[in-house]
Amino acid sequence: MIHWRFAPFDQLGPREVHDLYQARVGVFVVEQTCPFQDVDGLDPSCWHLLGRRDAQGPILAYCRLVPPGVKYQEPSIGRVLTTKEGRGTGAGRELMEQAIARTDAMWPGKTVRIGAQQYLEKFYGSLGFTRASEPYDEDGIMHIEMLR
Q1: What is the mean pLDDT of the chain?
Q2: What is this structure's pTM?
Q3: How far apart are CA 140 and CA 34, in angstroms?
Q4: For residues 122, 124, 130 and 132, what is the CA-based torsion angle, rounded to 10 degrees?
Q5: Domain around 101
């Protein structure tokens, strides 16, 4: 069972901010060997969804919900990750189901746009997203935009 914490950036505690940045750098920069500017200035405008086994345990899954007009015209789900501890447990699917439900509740009736790593197209497709762009290189990793 995953304990979910969902809050805007300014309601996260210092430890939560530390843990989410640690998880993002661990997955996106270290594991994927992709040096990029993760702290992009958007986090203060976003809502953050952190999944843990318990309230103080390590992050298993994480994403941020980006309001419409901040990154894309549409609301977006971004920085989606599952840590090593969460992989193979269903945490990634549960994360996206939670994120989709919360996005739909916050911005009802709005199309949601994501910038997905291309190899995950089938996974996101199983959650109702469809391809909306040709593949493009972002920080050395092929991505596609998808809509739901």
Answers
A1: 95
A2: 0.94
A3: 7
A4: -100
A5: 3-147
Q: How many domains does the chain have?
A: 1
CB-hemisphere CA count at 13 Å for 33? Answer: 0
Query: pLDDT for 90-100, tens place per residue?
Result: 999 999 999 99
Asked if 63 and 114 touch (Cβ cutoff 8 Å), the reply is: no
Contact 127, 117 (CB under 8 A): no
Whether 107 shows a pLDDT value over 90: the answer reads yes
CATH of the domain at 72: 3.40.630.30
Residue 130, classified by CB atoms within 10 Å of its CB into exposed (0-12), middle (13-18) or buried (19+), is exposed
Residue 135 CA to residue 132 CA, distance in Å, equals: 10
Q: Which pLDDT score, from 0 to 100, does residue 94 have? A: 97
* 70 pLDDT tier (thresholds 50, 70, 90): very high
Give the C-alpha separation, 108 to 9, whole Å: 21
